[in-house]
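Colleagues,

Please find the record for the two-part complex below.
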Amino acid sequence: MTDDATRQAVLAANQGFMEALNAMFKGDAAPMLDVWSHADDVTYMGPAREYLVGWAAIAESWKKQAEKRFGGWIESRQARAVISGELAIVTDIGHGDNPHSPGGDMPVDIRATSAFRLEGGVWKMIHHHTDLLLPLVDS
Amino acid sequence: MHLRLTTCLIVLVCLAVSPIATAQSTATAPATQEPAMTQAVLDANAGFYAALNTLFTGDDGPMADVWSHADDVTYMGPLGASLHGWDQVAQTWAEQAAMKLGGGVQTHDVRVVVSAGLALVTNIEHGRNPHTIDGPMDVLIRATNVYRLEDGAWKMIHHHTDLLPTLVEESKQMQGE
């Protein structure tokens, strides 16, 4: 059984990722670099249809996304966590809006799966998968 | 250290070039510590895709067997929606079996992270379904699969794929929307 404190810690890590996304939309990638594990086995399936493996490729992706300054916001709408030992899965719906996407204003309402791993006592993101955002796929 | 308790393995099942952009760190992968457990998870993942290919013929029996029937399972498949609990997940598989899409999919770029009792698998699904409402449909989507060890067997507890717009529309038509 997962105790409430562990569940709250995992959900707080997921919320930290959402806050890092909102900072990234303003051009600041630093919080995003902090919430992720920097291990070689992390994976990222983002809204532009990429499938990246390893922290080096994923860090570069977040820095490039931050440079685009999409603006706007996103929030968690339906976070659910399953936890076992040092691994946690969070499923969620991301809802928001990015006014400065490549196609102009882009409403966001996408499904998301995130995985977190306990590293040095902190839940770090090791995987993120979202549905596609077609303006980003085509850009 | 997490690596003492967590078995990590990156498995590159197929290096086929695909339009999905992929990139991999040049750094070495973490050492494999429990290959038997990782292999068991890979076997479970292969079992899921065998069940999926059977489902395309109209038979959802094997799919019911590879999934956990717990109340906390979740499904975010190619038809859209976010389902929660085995009752909802079983219902969508029955609906998809009734589509009798035919054909099949295989996996590329399979990667696994295993911990005590929980496993994360990511891969590409690549294939073709000849019998959709729009005719033959090529499939090339990303998938995240999660398995949990239940009574000694790795059971699927979550599946997330990119959307397939043709199936989103077909599902709406089946539901009379």
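The beta strands of chain A are 43-45, 51-53, 73-76, 80-84, 87-101, 104-119, 122-130.

Comments are welcome before we finalize the supplementary table.
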